[in-house]
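Students often ask why we bother predicting the structure of a whole assembly rather than each chain alone. The short answer is interfaces. A chain on its own may look different once its partners are present, and contacts between molecules only exist in the joint model. In this exercise we take two input lines together and write out one structure for the complete complex. Read the inputs first and try to guess which parts will touch.
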Amino acid sequence: MNGEDLKARVFGKLEATHQAAPLLARLSTDEKNRALESMADALLRQQYAILAANQGDVEAMRDSGETGARLERLTLTLDRIQDMVSGLRQVVNLPDPIGEIMESFERGNGLQISKVRVPMGVIAVIYESRPNVTVDSAALALKTGNAVVLRGGKEAMASNLALVAALQEGLFNVGLPKEAISYVDEPSRESVDLILGADKLVDLAIPRGGAGLIAKVKEISRVPVIETGVGNCHVYVHEAANLDMATRIVLNAKTQRPSVCNAMETLLVDEAVLRNHPEWFTSLAEALLQRRVELRLDQQSFELAAEQPSAPSDLIRHATEADYESEFLSLILAVKAVRGLADALSHIAKYGTKHSEAIVTGDAKVAEEFLLAVDAAAVYHNASTRFTDGSEFGFGAEIGISTQKLHARGPMGLRELCSYKYIVRGEGQIRE
Amino acid sequence: MNGEDLKARVFGKLEATHQAAPLLARLSTDEKNRALESMADALLRQQYAILAANQGDVEAMRDSGETGARLERLTLTLDRIQDMVSGLRQVVNLPDPIGEIMESFERGNGLQISKVRVPMGVIAVIYESRPNVTVDSAALALKTGNAVVLRGGKEAMASNLALVAALQEGLFNVGLPKEAISYVDEPSRESVDLILGADKLVDLAIPRGGAGLIAKVKEISRVPVIETGVGNCHVYVHEAANLDMATRIVLNAKTQRPSVCNAMETLLVDEAVLRNHPEWFTSLAEALLQRRVELRLDQQSFELAAEQPSAPSDLIRHATEADYESEFLSLILAVKAVRGLADALSHIAKYGTKHSEAIVTGDAKVAEEFLLAVDAAAVYHNASTRFTDGSEFGFGAEIGISTQKLHARGPMGLRELCSYKYIVRGEGQIRE
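Now the answer. The structure tokens for the assembled complex follow.
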């Protein structure tokens, strides 16, 4: 296909979605909930067609030699489809943020001004080969009265098209236009460029995926972007920490689900702790090694960890600068001894990605200083970084975790998919 | 200078400002207010040096043949410097948004979560040749604990450098680093590209200027941008309007200050009004023509306006498609007859820039329908569009009027220059 045809096709789709947006914005909560139920029903009805389409994607990826986590994330099962259906039904039960009066005030001249929550309009979601993102994104967009343009990775194209066909059938069955949820089925990278250049048709772009995808989207987009997800998170064990608590938090933050962005990547330990309680550190190291966590240690912590008689040598090595910069997303932990709070803060300022940062300490003053000074979406005192999550924060669902400061920070729930407008009611006021 | 030198210089400045940001973020309200007072004092002390520098800029612009509004906006006087000083002192009196607890809640597991307002960090302001933007932007950034990088048009470079030198002297006198307010004194366009590419050092970019500048910034920036200002605003006179009120609102919205973004550009009038009250329209046209407003009329309204015996023919012509698309920012008004609310809404959806839109009607139901359906930062019933403004909304000061939907919409005051973070206090909670 030549460039002009591609452009016409992508813009045609974006135009149609843009046209559908005002209708979506006007739906009542009941109408939106009925649509979500109908989408859930259609997914169930179409489950075997979806699995068949997915099987083709999975086989193609396997043929290309892929065997790891990507293949696993691409693969759908009846259980996973059931999870999507449950996800849709959970969104039904969340409160509808649209129409909420956020503020209301009267001016001296009698003008009545209300700040009212409204949809963004059209949201574009650019993602990789996880088909569940298709259903999640469509559900959250619909509940917030937004139209959505989806563009997933080409490896998941058949799966995504089958899912979107089911979601659109759900819309059709309640009399809504299928363009409210549209999928750009063009495998070329150019199609992404076209979506991200269409600032008259798309109000917000959300990249969901790895650091490479996010950087690419930020680079080319004219549409406002929310950056999500990269988390090089730290736990800092302060001199005055309850060390049993520190052990529990470190093990949880590193091992409970290491592949996600709110998992810990570097442990910072006060030198005083290593000096005064070396036995605590060696037993922590032992517990980590037992859980097959590979340790990348600075000199001080290395000496203590290597003392362990049972230390498996393949899991212990010296840390490099690159380790402190890494979001491992796996069972690898960098460790660094620091000289007190100031040193910990400057390490976090240098290497952190403004996602989630924790301190373990019994000293309330030090804790408050840490909470104030650290620039991150979520800062923790005596708790695991793993709590940075829409459900854990009580938002019910999330479309991602923002690591930028504009618009939304941390877990993004339904309210974060909304904008607002000012409604001004007068009696003929003019400006003097 | 070669590209590498330029890059090193610009990045050196951005790095220094980035380094200063955490200190700014931690200042108390009193410390920030003392800095603002000190900046005001320094401006007054330096006023003749500032005027001397400005004179050079003004002469260079005049030599280049410029005589109009741009020259006028560039020119400083003792009165204008006094206005800047008063502006700084007004910002002292505004409430400090930083540290405000926006929400606070406890989760079932005992975690205490607070959403706290924090500075953005580093804000870059890219603007043209209005030196007052330099002082405004620095004042609003400082009050919100943000460091700021300024890059104005090269025609105003000497003026801006003199102003920034005074502002930095003010910072120095209260012991604050001058890098908190920095000016990129590189005339090349490349320096703007470098600032907007530095997404690790700059948290937010705000273009302040014409549509060309804004489009350019959106195109090249990797830093999140807030789009401000372009306003193709409409006033819709509905069939059930109080026509005297309509006249007052139309004259105000068009002529009170035609050069600004919240001025009306197109008048939409119900056909029923033209049919049933032609005398109202001809007298409105007469009032507009008396104020030297050029009218660009569709066929129906043209016929009525041309009936005017005294109509000066140089001020009346037929409207073209381009007129409805134009933000005139001058004494020109496009007029279009519409067939009721639906027709008005679709005209606004097609040509509006989501800035400010007004309806004049006595029918409350029609008004509510308009307020709900129109997608704009501010929607008005029976009031002039000219009220979309930070002071008119009671925000005390504004850095611009956002026409995008991400983060902030409409007048942007101090709160809109802030982000937030989640502070989470626990007692050893881990995720199950």
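Check your guess against this: Chain A touches chain B through 67 residues (CB under 8 Å).
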